[in-house]
Amino acid sequence: MCGIAGVIHRDGSSKIGEEMSFMLQAMKHRGPDSTGFALYCERDNIDSEQYVMRMKVAETHEAVNGYDIHAKMEDRIKSVQSRLSELKVKVSEVEKITEYALRYTFTCDGNLRQLANYVEDIEGVEILSIGKGLELVKDLGDAKVVSDLYSLKSFNGTHAIGHTRMATESDVDIRSAHPYWAYPFADVSVVHNGQLTNYWSKRRELERKGHRFMSSCDSELIAVYIADKIEQGRNLEDSMLQSVEELDGVFTYLLATSDSLGMAKDTMAAKPMVLFESDQLVALASEEVAIRTIMNNEIDTSDPYDGEVRVWQA
User: Fold this and answer.
1) Per-residue model confidence (pLDDT) at position 91
2) Does residue 45 register a pLDDT over 80?
3) What's the CATH architecture for 3-41+157-313?
């Protein structure tokens, strides 16, 4: 049932945190279990050497109900800091957003795979995203709950994707929530509505290549699949076109990079997607009502056709 949404501004930055909050809240009936945001700040404001890392050191239910988890979380945070120091990562800022969610600003030599592997080797620690433009936030609850908890309405940027989730085949936890970061590539994220029927065979194929999976959610496969294609030197549009041929099932997904937003639908086009496009912005969502929450005037929308892949630039 899940709902997905995306927006990209072609004429500069906007209050994309607020826009995505409104769009996802309009579709909360499609997925009340968790909500996620992948937000992209304006590229001109980004230091070319500086990364932002979002991570969690526990699941929400652990932080609320675990009698001994509080001490464990503090130990995990200390271990993260120690390992970053070992890797000579220069951390300029650490923000504790919630008891279990942290935001690091840092510079490093660019070896993100080594950094992510070493940090996530700590039990209970998961990196949600690393990027120069991307900040990925996801938690339990509807869009308003998550947006308020992480103060997302004040986030300015050029584009974003988001997801409201109804858990069907995996747990109700942050790990199984969307979006997914396309590890280990900075600034690549994915949201997905549908089901992949060749999930396990494709997952084993990618694991044999050295890729890692953090959940049992089939949507994560798309992120890892695209990361693998990028690693082979393919561009975004070609990678997405190939995904339509190689991934089986019914699906519609949105993928974002530091400067672009892409959409792909499977050849049966069973999962809904509504598109609005103007000279100033492009907005997509599982339902038209979500797009109308950020528009002040009457709009015309369309439905992408079966097997269609589109990519827009910020």
Assistant:
1) 96
2) no
3) 4-Layer Sandwich (3.60)
| Residue ranges of the chain that CATH labels 3.60.20.10 | 3-41+157-313
Contacts of 187 (CB under 8 A, 6+ apart): 40, 131, 132, 133, 134, 256, 257, 258
Beta partners for residue 139, in sequence order: 35
pTM (2 d.p.): 0.93
Active site residues: 2
Average pLDDT over residues 186-204: 93
Banded pLDDT at 64 (limits 50, 70, 90): low
How large is the average pLDDT for residues 184-197? 91
Domain 47-131 fold: Alpha-Beta Plaits (3.30.70)
